[in-house]
């Protein structure tokens, strides 16, 4: 064995930091201090990927192509796929803004069974991304709808609130079903501050938390009403119902594994542990949104893990500020990249506005059942 041993389910292939858009909420703007793009690919990364796959004992390891905007590095993507496609149990995925998508790229992604995530913020996307790949007049929409394994992913912020994001995504999901006789996937994230510049701070500072709380209450009550009336299957892919169901499943997991979650030592995203972040030269990073190297594929595991653990404050948080928080089961200590100052200023209040209504509505529903 030449490289560090690790049970890994995902390797983020960090292609480079360049991007063709300038999204106001981009996490990387404050975190990336130098370019990481390599003109040539270190061939040793292929041996490393092969070893990781062999260590997984038949479990899937996903190569997730990441930027910046990864389609700027399409030639490198093709080269990596060419040199890894015969490695057992390797799957491919990519997250892209989609602006550079062409018919030949769609064919390539379909040929190699890529899970393709398109970043999009619904009908208000021009306010956050300044470009709309799903504009009906744009041929990009037609191309995206031809992707075999599609995910639409958006970010809830002061410009995009939960209900309007889900309703916008529903339109895309329904159209995709009509064209392909299957549903695409979806994902909703929440914006958080990694050090926004003054001209971008409004994206989180102007968040109407009362509106967030109200919308999450409405969504949860709608789910409870549908469930209690045995209408849960009336619409098999109602994003509003599925979104709340996913969060309730996380709550159930927490209740069943409370001690395990409260005593966890590692960040929820498992970045640096089950998820590796590797550039084309074989350097490893604590997170794919940074430019700070932690080690290389040639380092021994102790050296690598020591570097990763130095930046992970999850254990400390879980035993201090988070242990008595009502939404800890959904937040799980938050992102390891942000400071206590950010937690106090915006992060925790936003999470509570998002998640506390679910707990509150479920509690009220339980009380009605108990008389």
Question: What would the keywords be for this entry?
Answer:
seven-stranded parallel β-sheet, 9 strands, two-stranded antiparallel ribbon, single chain, about 375 residues, 14 helices, alpha/beta
Shape: globular
Structural class: alpha/beta
Helix-strand pattern, N to C?
A: EHEHEHEHHEHEHHHHEEEHHHH
Spatial strand arrangement across the major sheet: 6-5-4-3-2-1-7
Low-confidence stretches: none
The biggest sheet, with number of strands, parallel, antiparallel or mixed sense and barrel status, is:
7 strands, parallel
Number of strands: 9
Radius of gyration: 21 Å
Helix content bin:
40-55%
Question: What is the number of helices?
Answer: 14
What is the end-to-end distance?
63 Å
| Strand composition percent | 5-15%
> On the 0-100 scale, what is the average pLDDT?
91
What would you note in describing this structure?
The chain is α/β, with parallel strands linked by helices and 371 residues long. It contains 14 helices and nine strands. Strands 6-5-4-3-2-1-7 form a seven-stranded parallel sheet, covered by helices on one side. Helix 8 (209-228) packs parallel to helix 14 (340-369). The mean pLDDT is 91.
